[in-house]
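Q: Hi! First time doing this. I have a protein sequence and I read that you can turn it into a structure. Is that right? Here it is:
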Amino acid sequence: MTKNTPNNSDASGLEIALQWAELPTDHLQVALAALEPQLQREHEIRKIKLQHDRESIKERRNHLLYMTGLYMAFTISVGAIAGATVAGLEGNLPLALILCGPTILSIIGIFALRKSSASQIREASKQQKELLASAQLMQP
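A: Yes, that's right. Below is the predicted 3D structure, encoded as structure tokens:
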């Protein structure tokens, strides 16, 4: 049946169909009945491989997103600390408190941990207001 093709896996669908067309109908029915379980197995294997590939791509995307968040959190924290230092040295205490206060910690937590709750945001806002009020009292 496959005398013209060196390897059965390399044969194209057209070549196989042409070879099968030469068979009598009763032989063709027996051959198709015998081939059906193999085709089902190959289909299941392909489905499993595609599912594995999808999961692998999803894991790589999640890892990239997580690492990007960590890099952004690091960049924001270094920038905030540098800005607070400069603002503090120039005597701008409210700006220094804003840059190193609870709000920036919340932002870093959102980037690094990928979660925040409404209570954390409210608490950060409350602490920020208290810090600004105390900074304004300390201003000469």
